[in-house]
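Good day; I would like, with your permission, to put a structural problem before you. What I wish to show you is a protein chain and, alongside it, a tokenised description of its three-dimensional fold. Here, with my thanks, is the record as I have it:
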Amino acid sequence: MSRDKSIRLGSSLSNIHTVNQFVEDICDHHNIFNSYFGHILTAVTEAVQNAMMHGNQNDPEKIVTVTFEHTPEGLCFTISDQGNGFDPGSLPDPTDLNNDGLKGRGLFLMKTLADEVSFHNGGNTVELFFNITGIDQEHAAHRAQQVNKYLKTTSTVKDEPTTGKQ
């Protein structure tokens, strides 16, 4: 897998499975498991759903682009839509009891689950950054080779026979 990868989707929620597979493949490649995988998947999925529903107004002709970049500091997902943009600061706090709890929920989840969230292009692009210094497949394979090499050298050392005398 290259360090950079992207997918383009029509704005239909039926395409979410493609996003899920995209994130899963990336996390598998970088050995991201358990709860952190769940954080990444949820945040990216929320960003894509927001882009489809709110940005592109569920217009299947409008495209959402999801781009992945692996940096030395971590994993970065950029989600862009073709909508009119928005001001992220204008959304109500979904934890406010006076709010109906639904507006701003996706943004709240993204900010809670990602290590860094930034908006660009008038709100048409959101960047989700996850501080990961995980091990990608190349490093995992190298470590496995080192362990196998070590095990081979230690298994060739024969144990001295014990005579029962102390």
In short: The chain has four helices and five strands. Strands lie at 4-10, 63-70, 74-80, 116-120, 125-131. The two ends are 58 Å apart (CA to CA). Helices lie at 16-29, 34-55, 105-113, 137-155.
